[in-house]
Amino acid sequence: MTSMEFRYLGNSGLKISEIIFGNWLTHASQVENDVATASVRAALDAGITTFDTADAYANTAAEQVLGDALKDERRASLEIFTKVYWPTGPKGHNDVGLSRKHIMESIDGSLTRLGTDYVDLYQAHRYDSETPLEETMQAFADVVRAGKALYIGVSEWNAEQLRAGHALSKELGFQLISNQPQYSMLWRVIEEEVVPTSRELGISQIVWSPVAQGVLSGKYLPGAELPQGSRATDEKGGADTIKRFLDDEVLTAVQQLKPIADELDLTMAQLALAWVLHNDNIAGAIVGASRPEQVTANAAAAGVKLDDAIIARIDEAIGSVAETDPSKTVSPESRPA
């Protein structure tokens, strides 16, 4: 296994760890705070320097847990990312979206909870169809000017939205350098439009769910009962997000990856992460963890190189069960209530 490797994020001088620690479904919701802190320690020990969260995770509590876990670390040695868009706090009529009001209030709340003066990357957690894009990008420009965020990114924006946002960021004098989409062997909707557009604009992908909510780890078997305590049995959010991958045809295809992983002396999850990182437009893959050992194992996927023959075998194994429809890259049509 190799040590942690780093990649530039978009057309910028900022380097991030190939494996990123994320706390979407875990911190302050599925796992106890001491386990969350132990997982952050395991990430640091494995050479992970990049941490991704959002104000909406566990309705702001996940940021607090991450901030507490990182408080004794040298701030300049870390890259801390957070996001704004989904409803937070009491979830009132202005506690959502990408209005100037919500962005300005949210960045201050996030910095307080994270215990830092700035975030390295502040991300629009979805596209907000109810706020003029000019207003959103001007607010982001002001957040950067105020020194509260160093760079700006987005999440799940389609190619057209990325192009419009990038043009405005250039006009306003700041850098839009990243997009955070879902991407894995089973969910490849960004390949046809988002990735080519991003390459052209100097935008990298930071991808979430690279192991397809754990399905690509091989622990879910076709025709078998769902493992107790797994994400698929978690009614607090995990079960909803994983459902689409629990089809027997998909699970059968996934099992065909096992011999490939064995041959390379990788776990199936490590193979899934190495596959995502094979794409040079991906700057990093976000991994979550409900226990420290998972972080250590996942971090070992950094630097693993897959040759073209292996990539071809993976494509053959997964075949037509992968979702590739670019129209599936989509943000809500209206703000969630």
TrEMBL record:
UniProt xrefs under Pfam families: Aldo_ket_red
Sequence ranges assigned to domain NADP-dependent oxidoreductase in this UniProt record: 18-317
UniProt GO molecular function: oxidoreductase activity
InterPro entries named among the record's database cross-references: AKR (IPR020471), K_chnl_volt-dep_bsu_KCNAB-rel (IPR005399), NAD(P)_OxRdtase_dom_sf (IPR036812), NADP_OxRdtase_dom (IPR023210)
CDD domains: Aldo_ket_red_shaker-like
Assigned keywords, A-Z: NADP, Oxidoreductase
GO cellular component: cytosol
Family: Belongs to the shaker potassium channel beta subunit family.
Protein name: Aryl-alcohol dehydrogenase-like predicted oxidoreductase
Source taxonomy: Bacteria, Bacillati, Actinomycetota, Actinomycetes, Micrococcales
